[in-house]
Amino acid sequence: MFKKFTNGCVALVNKYLPDPFLFAIILNAIVFIAGIIFTGQGPLTMIKHWGNGFWSLLLFSMQMVLVLVLGSAMAQAPLFKNLLKKIASLAKTPGSAILITTFIATLACWINWGFGLIIGALLAREMAKQVKGVDYRLLIASAYSGFLVWHGGLSGSIPLTIASETGLVATGGALTTPIPTSETIFSPLNLAIVISILLLMPIVTRAMHPTPDKTITIDPSLLHDEPLKEYEIKTPADKLEHSKILWLILLAFGFIYIVYYFSENGFNLSLDIVNMIFLFVGILLHGDLRRYIDAISEATAGASGIILQFPFYAGIMGMMTGAAEGATSLAGVISTAFVNMSNDNTFPLFTFLSAGIVNIFVPSGGGQWAVQGPIMMPAGSELGVPAAKTALAIAWGDAWTNMIQPFWALPALGIAGLGARDIMGYCIITLLLSGAIASVAFLLL
What we know:
Blueprint: H1 2-16, H2 20-39, H3 43-54, H4 58-75, H5 78-88, H6 94-111, H7 113-130, H8 136-145, H9 157-161, H10 188-207, H11 236-241, H12 244-265, H13 271-286, H14 289-299, H15 304-321, H16 330-340, H17 347-361, H18 365-383, H19 387-400, H20 410-416, H21 420-444
Helix pairs in contact: 1-21, 2-15, 3-15, 4-7, 4-13, 4-14, 5-7, 6-7, 6-8, 6-10, 7-8, 7-20, 8-21, 10-21, 12-13, 16-17, 16-18, 17-18, 17-19, 17-21, 18-19, 19-21
């Protein structure tokens, strides 16, 4: 029965899911029409909101691109590639390959979402080379499913944003002091959700593996790795590019500042310090400035979809948050509807569900916070719900529906050579699993 349901989801997605960019355009049209219907604003006003929002996320876009590129470059270091080969060698059957890939990808995404996406995809490719009879689509879907935990992890943008003074702006006055990560990322509530997903999701993805007659494999020869590049050092410029002295000086600058940052701020992670850590750890592991430059060049290709699509999602955000004077925005209509049906016990659950809906149209942690923070945080404060719990509910709602939003799957799909429709059917199952886990946690814990 479970495999039949999974196969049905896969067939449905293969038939109806368009390219991720076209998906974004369709969402633009849906929000445009919904804004006219539910907020009473005219077409020209909605177009103005769209245009005003179109370039509003450039700073955050750059931060997200850096998280992806720096995490990807770090994952290309020989140390990690050899480690992935050893991990893949542990799998002896298709089921164990899916199990291990899901677990490792989830753990890596908790550490850093960009790093986890790439590590998961690379591990899935390595599994496809070494394990006969494993479904390649499910391998990549399992790797992407690890992305579910990113917003409860060390690179979660909402927990990191509210840990700094600049993160207080989008709370509508509900917060006057930063919330440390000990109350969000490292809270019992958040860790309970993360651990539950980390333990249960590998079992579920393993159970999704198709029967042999429906399994789609890939020829391992198509997944060969490029040999480690050899450099000829002939000119003074070549010597500078491979200089160990410059490499050491740069590492000294970076790690001295990182140590200083934590000595001054404690273990409060921001997006900028996460990026700095992965930048300098990547430089360290590559062991050569020229080699690291080339790794960055390769990693930037995976960010092309983000660069193209982010302005259109920023435009959606403009329409979601735009409102005429004295009127309510579309995001306000959605969020307020859930607030009105909530009490102090159900508010975190309904915040999570509303965030999941909003995330389909604004698949950005920072965008999600800008849309819902000013509405949900004051409402939670009035109901007596801890601010950290409300913020976590928004964060997990944002992460949850990424399983049916192909935007963030683009880097993994680029590595795999697949399309979104190849994996999204399987991701519907992980959406249902994670939704159930988070709903129970926010309602009962």
